[in-house]
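# step 3/5: fold
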Amino acid sequence: MRKGNRLLNKCGRIMLIVILLSFLKIPVFGEPLTGQPPTLNEEETKFYSDLEVDLLIDSISEIAIEAIEQAAAEAARSAVLATIEREAALLREAERWRREAEMYQLTLRQNQRNGWRNIVITGLSCLVGGFVVGFAISR
């Protein structure tokens, strides 16, 4: 507990120092502020010909079509992968149910064999018990 308090105290001191230093004008290294570029006046404005505009539109259209085709291919690939994953999960589930059914069949066969064995043992014990009772009564 004391160790945690010491760490919190150190953390609090560091935060206090950082807050106080933020009020000072200390240069911070980072990205320069971005401002709006100066507006061009009419003398500096560049005019494009119809051919240049058409070429630009054509190149942008080609790039957009390629991007759309690539996105469609990715979507189809992920849909196929999802379908394959679902089928694999269903196959695993079917295999699990098949193994479970086989286990129940084996258990049923063993119970049937044990049932016949129990019937034979019961019959023999009744027969022997009948002979014993009959012999005891006849004496």
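# step 4/5: annotate
The first helix runs from residue 2 to 23.
# step 5/5: archive (pending)
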